[in-house]
Each structure stands twice: as C-alpha cells, then as structure tokens.
Amino acid sequence: MPGQTMSDGAGRQGRAGRFRFVFPPARGYAGPVNGSRSSPSPERVGDLGERGLIRRLAARVGRGRDVARGIGDDCAVVRVRGAAWDWLLTTDPVIEGVHFLPDTPGRRIGHKAAGRVISDIAAMGGEPLHVLFDLVAPPAASVRRIEDIYRGATALCARHGAAIVGGDVARGPRLELHAFAVGRVERGRAVLRRGARPGDVIHVTGRLGGSILGRHLAFEPRVEAGRWIARGGWATSMMDVSDGLASDLRRILEESRVGADLDAARIPVSAAARRLRDGRGALDHALGDGEDFELLFTVSKSRATAFARAWRRAFPALPATPIGVVTPARGRLMLRRDGSAGPVGRGYEHFVT
Ligand SMILES: [Mg+2]
Fold first, then answer.
1. pLDDT at position 41, please?
2. How many structural domains is the chain composed of?
3. What value does the mean pLDDT of the chain take?
4. What single-letter DSSP state applies at residue 130?
5. Which end of the chain, N or C, is less packed with Cβ atoms under 10 Å?
6. Higher pLDDT residue, 42 or 88?
7. Which domain holds residue 287?
8. CA of 93 to the centre of ligand 1 (A)
9. pLDDT tens-digit map of 249-290
C-alpha cells in the first residue's frame, strides 16, 4: 500500500517534511469586502442538507473529459474512447459513531465499508473490480481490530470478484474508513437514476426496514441482480436503497422529473422492521430506514410481466416486488393506503436532524 506513514490528521507539518498547501490570501485582500469585521451568521451544512450541499458543490466542479455521467448518480460513469466498457467510480466513508460503534466487530466494519461502494456499483448494473481504502485511526487504536476490518473487507470483495489494491493511512481522532471503488459495465449499459417514465412499474428487491438491528453490518450487495438487470436492459432507472426507500425514490423522481404512487400494501416489510418497538410502525421503518442496500428500479409497463417471469427464473430466492407506478406529477411522491392517498414524509437525510 502506498504512503504507509501516519500523517497528521489535523494537517500539521510532520517531521518528515511533507508537502503542505497554504492558501494565500488573494492579492490586495484587506478583510471582508463590506469593510465590516463581523460577517453575517454563516450558512451551515445542517441547514442545507445533504442534497442541497451536493447540488451546491456540483455547480462548482464543472465537467471533466470522458465523463458520461457525473455527480447525481450512484457512481460516476467514465467512457474512454473506443473501449468496450464504461468505468464506474464511487466512494463512501464509514465513521465511528456515525456508521458503526466503538464496540462493532472489525470484520463487520470492513464488510460494511466495502459493501457500500460495491452496492453502488451493483446499482449501476456494474461489475466491481478494484477497491482502495483510506484508513484514519487514533494512535491508540488496536492493530488487531484494524486487521479484522481488512479481513472483513477482503472477504466481501473476494465474494464479488473485486480486489483491494491500495489506499493510505492517516492519524485522526476516531476510526474512519474511506472506500473508493472502480467497476465496469458494458459500454452504454449503466443504469442511471434519470430514465424513469410515467407508467413504469417501481420494483424493490428483498425486504426493507429495521437494518439497525444488524443488517446494516451484514448486507450482501446485489451485484448479481444488478448485472442481470443491466445485461437484460430491464430497468429504465435504478439505484440502491442506502438512505431509505422514500428518500431514495425521491432521487429517482428528481433525476427523472416524474412522480410516483406507492402502494402501501405491497411494500415488502422486513421481519426486523416488525420487531422494532420504538413507537414507529413497521411500514414507517420500511419507508424511512436506510442501509438496506436493496435495489430500487423501474421497469417499463410493457415489459413488467416478462420481467416478473424472467426474474423468478433467475432469482427464485430473492423477491423483486412491484410497489407502485411512476406518474407524470413531477416531484410528487404519494402513498396509497386503505383506499386513500397522501404524500410521503421525508426519509433520513445526512446532516439534517
Ligand atoms: Mg447508492
């Protein structure tokens, strides 16, 4: 692995004399433009929310060469001229206290970190190939625990044909694992979030909700299913359920400029969601909980019957449940229940509390 020295997480100069970037003040800079010493209260990340922040940043980064799909999907899609495959690029952090606890077994942490990025590649219909990890650890962290993390990550990667090929290590106040993955998909076959059309049937694999009871550390990314869907050209849009069904479906609706009607009775609720006793109903957990890492996708109405038949043959043990339809009502997500319909509440969103 390159760069095995522990660099200072706070960015101070280490004894080895590493490069340091210093941002010089702009020429002629003489304090705030309006001359006042006090600036207005700064906008906070929590006010903007994850999507608002990403939108803001996306507007600043421009567009690179060979980019078939940039910010706004599970992976970026890079198309190299003349190549038979498109590259899929994605990255994701898991952080102590946010995604796992100080007593979470190391293997589970590694499994989760690798699983999240591999799930993003599955959600594009791709084949995972290579994974890099940046590890941030306090000096007091147990080496054995960190070895266990890599054991868990390696095992999951190996099951899906991917290899860990590098990364870096840095010192920091808490354990963090930042995964970066590369995959590939047949040229032009990546399934994006923006292809859903009115009339399409919305499907989800597996069962949803209650991942906090253990599944968020033990899920298996749906690589085989994603590959099958992409190769058959079955889906008009697809993503993985990482932030919760309602929240993630909204992203498909936004990107595709459509709406959706969900049928409450058809949403596949997990046994874990029914076991939770926290005042929220099982359906609420299935709609709002994150980290199920199932596939959420749309199939055109004319192919829905053929899809159901082919799916059952290909995946007899994994349900792909039709849970609703795409509507032309742009941005509107409705839930039909007991003969009435109402708007769906917001799912979990990072930063917003
Ligand atoms: Mg995703």
1. 74
2. 2
3. 87
4. E
5. C
6. 88
7. 201-343
8. 13
9. 999 999 999 999 999 999 999 999 999 888 888 898 999 988
Neighbours of 4 (CB within 10 A): 8
What's the token pair of residue 82?
Answer: 């003349």
Using CA atoms, how far apart are residues 155 and 110, in angstroms rounded to an integer?
9
Closest-CA residue to 303 (of 208, 227, 203): 203
Cα 265 to Cα 127, 268, 277, 281, 327, distances in angstroms: 33, 8, 21, 13, 18
Among 159, 186, 213, the domain-final residue is: 186
Distance CA 254, CA 104 (A): 35
Place of tokens 């920091």: 172
Same domain for 216 and 163, yes or no, is no
Chain segment 151-166, per-residue pLDDT in tens: 999 999 999 999 999 9
Beta bridge partners of 135: 169, 177
pLDDT value at 16 more than 60 = no
pLDDT tier at 199, thresholds 50, 70, 90: very high
pLDDT at residue 246 greater than cutoff 50: yes
The alpha carbon of 139 and the centre of ligand 1 are apart by a number of angstroms equal to: 32
What pLDDT does 13 receive? Answer: 30
CA 50 / ligand 1 centre spacing (Å):
14
Same domain, 206 and 182: no
From the CA of 16, how far away is ligand 1's center (Å)?
38
b/e per residue 109-142 (b: at least 16 CB within 10 A): bbbbbbbbbbbbbbbbbbbbbebbbbbbbeeebe
On whether both 88 and 180 belong to a single domain, the answer is: yes
- Report the pLDDT value the prediction gives residue 311, as an integer from 0 to 100: 98
User: Would you say how long the chain is, in residues?
Assistant: 353
Entry pTM: 0.85
Whether 223 and 336 share a structural domain: yes
Q: What CATH number is associated with residue 181?
A: 3.30.1330.10
Same domain, residue pair 247 and 314: yes
Q: Please tell me the distance between residue 36's alpha carbon and the centre of ligand 1 in angstroms.
A: 44
